[in-house]
Amino acid sequence: MIVNYQEDGWQIISQRAHGLLSGQICFYWKHDFRPERWLETIIATTEHDDVFNEFVNDDNLLNENGGPVNFKMRKFDEDKCEELLQLALSKSRYIALLTSQHIQFLYEKETDKHIVAYCKKLKTWDGKWRKEAGLDEKEIRTAYQILEWCDALSLLICQNQVPPEGRKIEISQGPDNQQYELWSPQESVLRVKPWPFDTDSFKIHFESKTMTQLKFDNVIAFREKLKDAPVQFHTYLISK
Questions:
Q1: What's the CA gap between 106 and 240, in Å, rounded?
Q2: DSSP category for residue 14
């Protein structure tokens, strides 16, 4: 989950809500630069964090002080990676390949021998899945670069990292190897340059929850409070 500290407490955005926002952004990508299997690309982008469900099966939600754990504080978890891959693989080899690329993007620079071995195993699986599905390595790499870009933009928005007063921040390199910039000329309006989308403007939406209690005795107590916490709805206009 994404955890932001605010004056009124913790703002919590679930991993799945962040993924859904990534998918909304992906939906508007320029037609001329969309991979052939576009619907599956959107699905992979939307579901790239779906293994984390704070309401049901994720027990790593609190730190040693009883506060909520931000996603950046989490360490490599092979079981979660495997679960995410199996969810993807149950849909298609294409989605599994994009999911595998994402796991490698997150961890391939780690030096822990266990993580290195796992990423090496993923590369072997990638080759097998591409062969089975008749997919080209370049095609998968391009599709993943779109996924990663949409993920990066969603994270900037969800973490409240868009600078004030119209100052610019880098998003990520897209599949065209250009560096994209993001800024906000006014409240709830975002600009992106160069413009990678098919329409001149579109709206995005996501939900967060606000928790005024700052620490919790255990995960069960936190989870129940999170389920009942007030919902806030966020809308932004992304415009050329």
A1: 30
A2: -
Name the one residue in this structure whose structure tokens are 């599994």.
96
- DSSP conformational letter for 28: T
Which pTM value belongs to this model? 0.95
Q: Report helix, strand or coil for 113.
A: helix
Please give the DSSP secondary-structure letter assigned to residue 62.
B
Under DSSP, the state recorded for 69 is P
**Cα–Cα distance measured from residue 159 to residue 185, given in angstroms and rounded to the nearest whole number:** 18
What's the one-letter identity of residue 90? S
**Are 4 and 155 within 8 A, CB to CB?**
no
Instruction: Quick: pLDDT tens for 89-132.
Output: 999 999 999 999 999 999 999 999 999 999 999 999 999 999 99
H helices of the chain, in order, are 15-27, 38-46, 78-89, 93-107, 113-133, 137-158, 219-228
Compute φ and ψ for 2, nearest 5 degrees. Answer: -100, 125
3-state helix, strand, coil in the chain (%, to 5): 45, 20, 35
Q: How do strand 189-193 and strand 231-239 relate by DSSP bridges?
A: parallel
**Main-chain dihedrals φ then ψ at residue 57, nearest 5 degrees:** -130, 20
DSSP one-letter string for 170-181? EEEE-TT-PEEE
Helices 78-89, 113-133: crossing angle, 10 deg rounding: 10
Helix orientation angle between 137-158 and 93-107, rounded to the nearest 10 degrees: 60
